[in-house]
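Input for the complex:
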Amino acid sequence: MVVSKSRFIVGVLVLALIGGLLGGFNMHWSRETLFPLYGVVIDLCAVPVLIMLILYVRKLKTASTDEFGVAKKRYAAQNGFIIGFALFLISGMFPIVFPDLYRQFIASLDGAHEGFLMGRVTGMAPFVLGVLIGQVGAWLKYR
Amino acid sequence: MRNRLKILRAERNWSQADLADRLAVSRQTINAIETEKYDPSLPLAFRIAELFALRIEDIFMPV
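Predicted:
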C-alpha cells in the first residue's frame, strides 16, 4: 500500500464524473437528428482520456490495496457465500417442515405478481444475511 | 506459521506503524502477522527479510 485510499476514491469519483458527462452528452445528442461536429471532437478527445483515466485508477487501486485487506475481504466473501447458500437451502425446507404455515403464507399473497416479488426477496435474503455474517465473522477473526 | 517479527521490531525500537511504513503495508497487516493470524505473501516475506537483512527462514518458521 503506497497510495492512500482517499486518492483512489478521488480517482473513482473523477472517472465517474467524466464518464457521466460523456454519457449524458451522447445520450442528449443521440435524440437529435444531427450529431454536431464538436460532439465528434469531444468524443474523440474524451474517450482516450477516459481510457487513460481507467488505467490510472486501476493502478491507484493496486497501489492503495493492502494484501491483508484483500485476504480479509476474500475470507468474508467466501464464508458469506457459503453461509448464504446454507441459509438458502435451510429456507427451502420451510414448505416441507411447516406445510400448513407455508400454505397460509401463500394464501396471504395478493396474486402472482406479489408472489413473484416475495420469491425474489426471500430468494435473495439468505445471501444478503450470509454476506453480513461473513463480514462480521472476518471482523471478529482479524480484529 | 510462527515468526520473530515482533522481537526483531522491538530490537530496533520500531512501532508497528513504523514497520508498516517501511514495508508499505497497513499497520493491521503487521499486527495480523505478529499475532500469527495471517501469513504474508511471498513478496512481502522477501521485503521483510530484506528490511531486517536476514533470510526468510530466520524470520518465519513452520509450526
